[in-house]
Write a structure and sequence with these properties.
Distance between the termini: 37 Å
Largest sheet: 6 strands, mixed
Length: about 425
């Protein structure tokens, strides 16, 4: 891994939080992700399943975590199963976790090789009444590929039909959404790497540069700072491309006078950051561009203030919509008649701001969190309003990552990344 080793105390705490919510006499199993094939002998780079990483810190393929807090013997309460390493694997693939190294990473003392899993699971099933299976229930999830986790669930249900079944996901949705201080520090590191990439761009962007050259500059800066790279597929959208919300081709030339919407951010140690900035190709906003830019910035700043304990996600977006409506009226993009005659299910402002303002973030860019429950301290959210004007061939979105505080204003993890229009112009023209 490129990142510095994380103190295993974080994963010990995370497991305690999870097991505290488990039913009596129950087992929970978590699997790593597969390495996904492309064609022939080519594969995608491995990316660990965030749940097993959250609970163990193990960041390699063919790994299994088993939790059994009511096990009859102490060494059965938490166990890791890893692919057995050897000299041949070390030569061809590189070092894998040894049992001792796995303990250092995870804080779990009982470590077996993977070939022992079925035998040991069978013994655990004779003691347990309930199995917690780990299903993907994120509100944005659309999974067509059968994952390693899904294959395990199918196999387990056939092998042990008499046991009760419970779900891990509702527990994880709650505990993963509230971050430990160590996790906030890791997200901050991802944000700091993102800042370095963005500052690099401010002196690089000029008329006729291509979107993919900008992408390459960011990738260079992220990786040289111990990130694996982008936390998500980067959006580098110049001119009218900014009005395509998930534009990812990044293959156009950036023209003088246009704006570039940059929805780009680094990961660090599997934790995401999520930034959007919009900058002028020529180093200076037009009067109209700056007016729209400052309107988006005001909405972002006002929305950020609302991210406090007890706030309900749905009501928050209603209030943000009111602020955006006011700004769009001021810009002449809508008028009072549009507002008076609007459809309550699709208000007038949605013509120019059609997406949500905030989402949970952490190990996943769109992280776990139950949207019907009130916000809590140490949740981390994006704040990302935008105004998109195809008729004027530009769109502007601004996005920061903020931590909900027990008291006081939310803490902006991107507080050092330039966002004021005048500062961006100054830095681009130095």
């Amino acid at each position: 891994m490129k990142y510095h080793q994380i103190n295993s105390a974080l994963f010990v705490k995370n497991r305690r939080k999870f097991t505290a919510e488990m039913k009596p006499n129950s087992v929970a199993v978590f699997n790593s992700n597969d390495i996904y094939p492309i064609s022939a002998d080519s594969t995608l780079p491995f990316a660990q399943h965030r749940d097993i990483f959250y609970l163990s810190g193990v960041d390699q393929e063919e790994s299994i975590l088993l939790l059994f807090p009511d096990a009859p013997f102490e060494n059965q309460k938490e166990m890791l199963f890893l692919k057995e390493t050897n000299d041949h694997i070390a030569v061809w693939e590189g070092e894998k976790l040894s049992k001792e190294r796995a303990y250092q990473v995870s804080g779990i003392r009982t470590v077996y090789w993977l070939q022992d899993f079925h035998k040991i699971l069978n013994e655990m099933m004779t003691y347990a009444d309930t199995m917690y299976i780990n299903t993907n229930e994120h509100y944005r999830a659309t999974v067509e590929t059968e994952t390693r986790e899904a294959r395990f669930v199918k196999w387990w249900k056939e092998r042990y039909p008499a046991h009760n079944v419970a779900k891990s996901n509702p527990i994880l949705q709650r505990i993963r959404s509230v971050k430990e201080s160590e996790e906030i520090d890791l997200i901050q590191q991802a944000c700091d790497i993102t800042e370095k990439g963005f500052r690099r761009l401010l002196s690089f962007v000029k008329p006729n540069v291509t979107e993919y050259e900008i992408e390459a500059e960011l990738a260079h800066e992220f990786i040289r700072n111990r990130s694996k790279g982008f936390a998500y597929t980067p959006i580098i959208a110049s001119g009218n491309n900014a009005n395509v919300l998930h534009y990812i081709e990044n293959n156009q030339q950036c023209k003088a006078g246009d704006l570039i919407l940059l929805d780009v951010a680094a990961e660090y140690a599997n934790y995401s950051s999520d930034m959007t900035r919009t900058i002028p190709v020529s180093g200076k906003f037009s009067e109209r561009q700056k007016a729209v830019y400052n309107a988006v910035l005001r909405v972002k700043n006002e929305a950020t203030k609302m991210l406090t304990p007890g706030t309900l996600w749905k009501q928050y977006h209603v209030e943000v919509g009111k602020i955006m409506t006011s700004e769009l009226l001021g810009l002449g993009l809508i008028d009072k008649a549009d507002v008076q005659n609007e459809n309550p299910d699709w208000p007038a402002y949605k013509k120019y701001f059609m997406h949500g303002t905030s989402h949970h973030m952490g190990l996943d860019t769109h992280d776990y969190g139950l949207l019907h429950e009130p916000m809590k301290a140490n949740m981390v959210f994006t704040v990302e309003p935008g105004i998109y004007i195809p008729a004027e061939k530009f769109g502007i979105r601004l996005e920061d990552n903020v931590v909900v505080q027990e008291k006081g204003a939310p803490f902006n993890l991107m507080r050092n990344i330039p966002v004021e229009a005048d500062e961006i112009e100054t830095l681009m023209n130095e």
